[in-house]
Design brief:
It comes from Deinococcus caeni. It holds the Pfam family PilM_2. Keywords: Cell cycle, Cell division. This is Cell division protein FtsA. By secondary structure, the protein is of the alpha/beta class. 39% of the residues lie in helices and 24% in strands. The chain has a 5-stranded mixed β-sheet with strand order 3-2-1-6-10. Strands 13-12-11-14-15 form a 5-stranded mixed β-sheet, sandwiched between helices. A 3-stranded antiparallel β-sheet has the order 7-9-8. The longest helix has 30 residues. The two termini are 30 Å apart. The protein binds adenosine-5'-triphosphate and magnesium ion.
């Protein structure tokens, strides 16, 4: 079939969302549709030492793992969307005179120059309209979100995908992907009535806090519907818990990681938890109570950072009531974390449900796995969604 005809018959290709994370390389494959349907959700640990500050430093090593992962699961989609981490990017909401989308590209460049701390020729810019053009008066202003990242950082992510045999199509920002994957929670965009419980999404006008806690990066977003009110990087991420354990018990990183996954809780462990977690006599030294004492300062820092971000927003934009908080990223899986944040800050906190936005019953993966790893798959799912919908 000629490629023209092919495009005509399949206007949107199946897409892969590929997140190259500090802890894991994650791939989500989607087939387009309303809603899109999940084909695969797979991950593999990122080779140790191949990432620094959220960016790939050993492209070949990462590409080999990615290629093997795709081959192992017989994933043949090529069209891939990936992301740069928020640590290297700058995003801003700006006001510009009303104009058509096609004219924005040039205008944005001039505007962006004022906000971006890198030479404009070394960065790549992306933007999205936040206002519906039909609601903006002819001589009015409209709000646009701009995102900029060093071209070098983007090139490195693209290189990994190419080396793995994929066709990189779009490079997004991790936090945008995370929000896109949570449209079910944030906008009530649900697959079927059966997944709509009336408790798992924000109502119109409510403000939600979304926190993506990755291995080496965390981002906090304040959103109302699909409007981002604030986006900030947070200096505490899931690896910091591991590093604290590593120091306290004099372990190497991966042994400390095992202690975290096995024994760490974010609240004072109850007696039942002590019994449940402390089954391994050889590891009696890592009693949940002791492990909790070690990670407690990191937890304190995380909570302080959330408070600071909210304070920052309030100073700039006025008071805001947080109606819901959703946690994503692997860090959200720390036992008791949602409850600990909720206790400290006094608002409702829950782990996000990214899979609400797609049909999962035809997937080559079981529901238990999807549920257990929902936080880690938030970003790659959001990337794949951009691939199949081309929605900003
Ligand atoms: P980044 O995007 O920051 O580069 P990443 O995408 O690789 O990193 P994630 O996969 O979102 O990171 O999360 C991995 C982190 O989540 C690791 O620090 C891991 O220890 C932590 N994590 C995963 N499961 C648990 C758990 N059950 N308890 C505590 N922490 C966990
Ligand atoms: Mg991540």
């Amino acid at each position: 079939m000629s490629s023209f005809l092919n495009r005509l018959l399949n206007p949107r290709p199946n897409a892969l969302g590929v997140e190259i994370g500090t802890s894991a390389i994650k791939v989500v494959a989607l087939r387009p549709g309303s809603p899109p349907s999940l084909q695969h959700a797979v991950m593999v640990p990122t080779p140790i030492g191949s990432m620094r500050d959220g960016l790939v430093v050993e492209p070949q090593a990462v590409a080999t793992e990615l290629k093997n992962l795709l081959a192992e699961h017989r994933i043949t989609n090529k069209f891939a969307v990936t992301a740069v981490p928020n640590q290297v990017a700058v995003t801003r909401n700006i006001m510009v005179p009303r104009m058509e989308r096609k004219d924005l590209q040039e205008a944005i460049k001039w505007e962006a120059e004022r906000y971006i701390p890198y030479p404009i020729d070394d960065v790549s810019l992306d933007f999205d309209l936040l206002d519906d053009l039909s609601t903006v008066p002819e001589d009015g202003q409209m709000e646009v979100v701009i995102a900029a990242a060093p071209t070098e950082a983007i090139a490195r992510q693209i290189e990994v995908l190419r080396l793995a045999g994929l066709e990189p199509s779009i490079v997004d920002l991790k936090s945008f992907a995370s929000l896109r994957a949570l449209r079910g929670n944030l906008l009530g965009e649900h697959l079927t009535k059966s997944t709509l419980t009336g408790t798992n999404y924000t109502e119109a006008g409510e403000v939600a806090l979304v926190m993506e806690i990755g291995a080496s990066s965390s981002v906090i977003n304040l959103v109302r519907g699909d409007r981002v009110l604030m986006a900030r990087n947070i200096n505490v991420s899931a690896d910091d818990f591991t590093t604290a354990l590593q120091k306290a018990f004099d372990l190497d990183f991966s042994a400390a990681e095992d202690v975290k996954l096995g024994y760490a809780t974010a609240t004072t462990p109850t007696e039942d938890e002590e019994d449940l977690l402390n089954f391994d006599m050889a590891r009696e030294q890592y009693s949940p109570a002791r492990v909790f004492e070690v990670i407690r300062p990191v937890l304190g820092d995380l909570i302080t950072e959330i408070r600071r971000s909210l304070e920052f927003y309030r100073v700039q934009s006025g008071d805001v009531v947080i109606d819901r908080t959703f946690l994503a990223g692997g860090g959200a899986k720390l036992r008791g974390l949602a409850a600990a944040i909720s206790d400290a800050l006094g608002f409702r906190v829950e782990v996000a449900s990214p899979w609400l936005t797609v049909q999962t019953d035809q997937a080559n993966v079981d529901t238990g796995y999807l549920q257990a790893n929902a936080p880690e798959f938030t970003v790659p799912l959001g990337l794949a969604l951009r691939g199949v919908t081309n929605r900003g």
